[in-house]
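Input sequence (367 aa), recorded before submission:
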Amino acid sequence: MGYLGLENLAKAFRRERVLDGVTLDVAKGETVVVFGPSGGGKTVLLRLVAGIYQPDAGDIRIDGRSVLGVGPQSRDIGMAFQNFALYPHLNAFENIASPLRAHGVAQTEIKRKVDDVAGLLRITHVLGHMPRELSNGQKQRTALARSLVRGPSVILLDDPLRNVDAKLRYEMRLELPRVLREFGTTVLYVTQDYKEAMALGQRVAVLLDGRFRQVGTPAEVYRAPADVRIARLFGDPTINLYPVRPRPSADGGAEAELFGGTVRLPVGLANIAANRDCLLGLRPEDVTVQREPSDGALPVELDAVTPLNVRTVLFLRARDRAEILATAGEEAGAAFGRGHRQVFARIDLGKALLFDQASGERLAAAA
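Predicted structure, token format:
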């Protein structure tokens, strides 16, 4: 049993069911990122945990005790919002200090705690500034400091990096784990940015259709997605998907028609995938593009090369006109130039994913 436990939580507004049987255990000191598309119920879930909303069914436990019926102020929970929600008439120091003052903490202790958390978040120099004088990044750090200053047992972070610029978002992905480790608090972090989920979560809980469709480490969710929807949500550029109908091969394995030829499928898929309609998923980083032919490399047409920071995206077409997205390092990508030409692609089918075409469920290879 986790330190924070959610058990079959359900919540509806009018006739629309937003959450339907949400279950999750979060260990003490663990950071779990709740990831999903906009409008999927992530913020509603945080507000249930905080006590702002009451669930229609289910239970919420902190340290083994149900907190249903316990008011937000008595749940020992800190929360930071994507819109900062700072008090406009209080300077940064007083915004951070407000939870401490509400609990009657002595002034000397307030100053010590505010100075400590401000130092961790590197905002000591703006403690005397009003919210209107702060940059968005400083507002975001002030809001985080306010949620952390009491050292609550649980922290709820509602997409706190959404309204800051890309540079600060990158910096905070590096800094936040350090700050949260200092407090040793249990964290439920909401985002719709898969890169943020991968960077910050010790585990990622994917919320789809009102339930957690998959909960696992970032590597597990990326490399072994539960279904094709999750596979599409993680990755930029997105996963390549191709309809295939695997068949048994002469040597007891499985093969399929793909890219105008016959390809071998990963060992172990023959029994579960043979003679059923599937989608084959191929991550762009598992396609290696080269200018010269070699054994096992497919001839393809290079249609476009798009630099993307330190990576380059290559748009290819196979002999059967199927589109293939591949990625390469910046220098390797630049070597191809921008013109249309023939190149050769090596496909790492050992890392390919197979999904049932009808249900979307991933087909796991036999051990």
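Checked by second reader. The two ends are 30 Å apart (CA to CA).
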